[in-house]
Amino acid sequence: MDMINIKINGADYQAPKGSTILEAARLANVEIPTLCFLKEINEIGACRICVVEAQEKRGDGFGPKKIVASCVYPISEGMNIFTSTPKVIDSRKKTLELILSNHNRSCLSCVRSGNCELQKLAKDYKIEDEGIYDGAKTESILDCSSAHMVRDNSKCILCRRCVAACAKTQGIGVIGANERGFNTNISCAFEDDLGNTSCVSCGQCIAVCPTGALYEKDNTSEVFEAIADESKTVIVQTAPAVRAALGEAFGLPIGTDVEGKMAAALRRLGFDKVFDTDFAADLTIMEEANEFVERVQNGGKLPLITSCSPGWVKYCEHYFPELTENLSSCKSPMQMFGATAKTYYAEKMGIDPKDMVVVAVMPCTAKKFEIGRDDEDAAGVPDVDISITTRELARMIERAGIKFLELEDEKFDDPLGISTGAGVIFGATGGVMEAALRTAVETLTGEELESVDFKDVRGTKGIKEASYDVAGMNVKVAVASGLANAKELLKKVESGEADYQFIEIMGCPGGCVNGGGQPQQPGSVRNTVDIQALRASVLYKNDAAKSIRKSHENPAIKQVYKEFFGEPGSEKAHHVLHTSYVKRELYK
Amino acid sequence: MAAKECSIPFSGTKEQETKLREIISSHKNDKGALMPVLQQAQGIYGYLPIEVLKIIAQEMDIPLEKIYGVATFYSQFTLNPKGKYTISVCLGTACYVKGSGDIFDELSKKLGIKGGETTSDGKFTLLDCRCIGACGLAPVLTVNDDVYGRLTVDDVDGIISKYSD
User: Fold this and answer.
1) What ipTM was predicted for this assembly?
2) How many A/B residue pairs have CB atoms within 8 Å?
3) Into which CATH architecture does domain B85-162 fall?
4) Which of the two residues, B74 and B16, has the higher pLDDT score?
5) What range defines the domain where residue A176 resides?
C-alpha cells in the first residue's frame, strides 16, 4: 500500500494514499467529530461538523489554509492538517447554531435525551444560546401512520443517514430527501404516509438516526398497566439478541452478556412469569426442520426460506410476492411462543387465554407490525399482545428505579424458559440455519452428529453459502442478512443461477443482534467498531457453554410434543404454530 | 409541503406509454439516466404524473421516492399539468412592495389552489415569477400572453371572469 506523509496538529504521520483526512486522523488516533458521516453508506460531506483546516504542499511552501470537510477530502503528500484551531471550532459551532435554529429543541422530554448526537455536540462545543439564529422553521410533519414507528421531522437535521440505511443497506428506499433549499425534508414519495408505503418496519433508519426524529412507537405504559391489572396473568418472553445488547443501555461494553441480570430485572418489574423466546426458537426448529425434510422427501416447493424475521417476511410480500410460497409456514419464534403460551400453557395452568397478556421484548421494530398480522391468533386472541424493543425495556427498568448493574443473575422460569444452544444462536445471522442443520441432519441420517458446529454459515458476511452431504444427498444452503443482500441472493434464485434447497434470510444486517430495536450506538462507534460481531459473540459463547445444543433434545420441547402437539407437523401443530402470507403491492 | 399527488385525473394514452417505455429501454444500461428519462417523459406528457413515475420506477428499478425527490428538487420538473390559462404573478421587488403578495394570495384563495398547482377543472395554473421588466406598471401579472398592471386586490375577480370560457 502506498503511504504518504502528512502532519496533523504539528506531528508527523503516514497514511495510505487515497485516504480521507478523517480516515488518516483516525489512524493517528486523532478524533474528529462527525454527524452525517456513516462509513460506506453516507459519505456525503453534508453537515460540515467534521471540518478541519488543511494546507496543501506547494513547492517549498504551503498553499492557503482552507476549511474542508474531512470526511470527503483526500489527503495529499506533505499536507498540513489542523483539527481544533479556533477557526475550526468556530466553524463547527456556527454550523451547530444554524442546525439548532431549525430544530425542535424540546430536549427535556425527547426520547433521545442523553444519547442524542446533536445534544452531545451542542454541549461539547459550548453552545450558549441555542436560539441565536431563530427565525422561520421548516414545516414539521409528525407521521404516526405505521405500526412500528414515528417520524418527527421537527427534530430532523437532514443528515440523510436514515435515507442511506433504507436505500443502501436495505435496498428499499421508501424515504428520501424531497424539495430543495429551506423546504428540503425527509419523507416518502408524494409526501405520503409511511404506513401507506412498502416500508418493511425493519427500523434500521431508527438505529442510525442521530437525533429524536425517528423512534419506535412506545408501548411501555401499556406494559406497566397490564402488570398492575390483577385480573391478568402477564408473562414475558425475551428474544435471544436482547441479552446481547441490553447492557449497552446501562453503559456496559458492547458484547456483554446480561441474560441473568435481564431475567432478574424482568422479575422485579412484576411479570408473573419470566420466559425465554429461545424456547420457541427450539420449537421453530422442530417445525421448520420437519417442514424442510417433508418438502425434500415429497417434492415440495424449494428452496425453503426461513420466516423468523418479520421485516424480511414483509419485504418478501412486497418485493418478491411470487416467493411467498417458498416461505416456511412456521410462525416466528415470538409468535410460536405466544401461541403456545395461550394454548398449551394456559390449559395446563387453568388460565383463560383472554386473561393472559403476553409481552415480547424484541431487538426488532417489525415485531410491532407482526403481532397485528392475520392468522396469528391460535387461541382466538392475539398470540402476542405487546411487543417492545430492547430500548423500551431499558426505559422501563430505569423508570421502575431498578439498579440494573447491581442485580444478581437469575434464571428463566420453567417450562417455557428452558432452551438449548441452538435456540440462542437464532439472534445472529446464520444461527437459524445452523440450528436447523443440527436437527435436520440428525433426522435425515438417523445418526448423531460428531460436531454440532456448522462454521461455514457463521460470521457477519452479508451472503454466505455452504453445501453438505447428508444421507447421500447434497444439500445446498445460503444465508443472507440485510435486505439489499437478500435482494441480490433472491435475484439469483429467480433467474435459476442458484439452486439452493434451504435459505435463511434476516431483515437486518448481521441478524437480530443488529436489529432496529437495539440500543443505538453513535456514528463514532458505528464507524469504528464491529457491533454485529461483538454482539453475536455473546450468543455463540452462550451456545458453546450449554450442555444441550440441539433443539430436538430440549426436555421442555419433548414434553410439549408429548403432552400437546403430538408430532412436529401434526394437525394441532399446524393450527397453533403455522401461519399464512399475502402478496402485497409495491405501491398502494 | 408544496407537492402532493395531483388532483387532476390522469389521461395518458397508449401511444404515450409506448413512447415512454421506448425511451426507458433506450437508456436501460446508462448510469445516471434518470434525469434524461424524466425530461423526455415530461416532454411526452407535459408534466410528471404519479402513474408515469411508477412506470419509470418499476422499469428502471429505482425507488419511487428517489424519483420523486429528483422531480421536486429541480424546478424544471412539474408534477401538475399546466391549465388552459397560466396566471403568473410577479413577486419581484417593485411589484412586491406595491402589494403583489396580496394579489397572489387572493388568486390562491379564489381559485382554491396553491402556487404551482392547477385547478381541478384544468383551467387555471397559478405561478409566481420574478421581474418581467414592467416595473412601471407594478404590481403586474400575466395570463398567458396578456399583461395586467397597476392592480389592486379588487381587480382579481374581473380578471378571472374574463377567462370563463
Assistant:
1) 0.92
2) 58
3) 3-Layer(aba) Sandwich (3.40)
4) B16
5) 96-216
